[in-house]
Amino acid sequence: MGKSLSILCSGVAMKNVVRTILGLALLSLTQCMWRSSVLSSQSVFTPATAATKLHFPQPWLDPERSTNSGEAYPLSSIEHIEVRKAPNSADGELLFAAIGGYFDGMYSYEVDKSRSKPQYSLNVYAVDFAKGMQVRTATQEEWENATRVLTKSRFISANGDYESPTAQIEYRQKRYGKPGQYWGNGGLSPTGKWLASFSYSGVMREGFLPFSGRSVWSGDAFWEIYDTVTGKKVFASEAKNVKNPAGLNGPVIWIDDRYFLFPQDDMKQNFVVVTLPGVTPEENPVTIQFPSRRDASGQPVPAGFSHPVWTPLVPLTKEQAAKLTAPSETEIMETRLLDQGAGAEVVFAIREETENRTESRRQQRDGAGDYNYRLFNTYYYAFSLENPTQTRFATKEEWDHARSLTNRHAEILPQPEKDTITGTIPPQRPLSKSGKSWGSPQALSAGEWMAVFSYDGQGSNTRAIVDVYEQRLGYKLFTTTLPVSTSPNELFKHAFWIEKDYMLLPLNSSLDSFALWRLPGGV
Questions:
Q1: What is the pTM of this model?
Q2: Is there a contact between 423 and 450 (Cβ–Cβ < 8 Å)?
Q3: What is the pLDDT of residues 427-469, one digit of tens each?
Q4: Cα–Cα distance between 490 and 510 in angstroms, integer?
């Protein structure tokens, strides 16, 4: 028994020694990797773009693992860097902590209490951006009392295999290549103004372990930032001869559209902070006014396509005839993208019933009787993606040459609970309305976005209210209030998304005027 206990104690001691050695080796490796990155990193800036280094004094520490002497080990992996803003903190000061282990990126535990909370680092730091990235150690009390800041990047992938030399990132009709051999991720800033892209180079090797896959053990890492409006590059950074260059792909941090932070070592202790030019927010929504479908005398103007429909009334009962010949609502049939090199346009097909009458065909060869005659006119409109206020009639030929776009229409969801409605994608967050009354339909969802519809007032004082959320984190992008002269529900039922990133809401029942929201993303 004594011998067994001695062996057991020796085993425990040996395990602690091994863990200590591994911890020290990890620290040494981190420092070596940082020196490799920093000493050989070369950055090129435009005059409007500045960059500086952010160094956290210690590695991010594991709150659950420590040596016999009580010294905490570094986190074995870092999935995310969380940023918070403390109440009454100095202007420009933000709190930083690392998240280790498994992290779903959506803080699902806030909705589903059965899910585990993120594993935060033992250490927390305050960074003062207004004072040249000054760093101080913060307290857990400061961290617990602070509010999370939205820093998540909207990932955007290249349009081909990550190793393909021709693969590009496409965003709002502009294409971006890579300086490295392999694509990492592209990430949009919160408003979509900036695109940060990552690529890397090196010899791709097989891993030591079965099923470990291929990776680049040592090579170069590249970050580039582009202005998505002009397509021009505003920042470029190259780190030479770093270990595991693909590991420098993240986590990245966007703070508003002003700062972009990316790591320079695997343990995320050192970051480059890119300060970007001030941004004037994109106007949201903009009003689109299409040309009138009526001339000065009130008659329909020539349509792009006309389709007459004759319905015999003789075999029908009165109720059947009334149902089949009831006036049809004006409707949006489809949207397409027209890109002819001079600027892309979205093309609408709007179908309108312009005639509906009973006509006798007793003199026709097909026999006696009354018929219902209806004429459906399809009008084609186009608006510019660069400047949506530029609108025009489009031709049937242009329509035929345009490619189809994905549309999603408003939907009736399960009965809301008081002032909130449940999101449609995990983690199904409750999303609130701003108006007093729910719209019908209540919402329009597309991918990560959801628009929540409500309204206030009556008659001439009616206001339609649209709240747009990023569903996964529950972040409200904006609230828009629109005075309307018709039933808000008549407008809500015609609301739709185009390719998830453009939302349109008609402003009248004739569907010739729309509010257009442009969200980060786009066709």
A1: 0.82
A2: yes
A3: 999 999 999 999 999 999 998 899 999 999 888 889 999 999 9
A4: 11
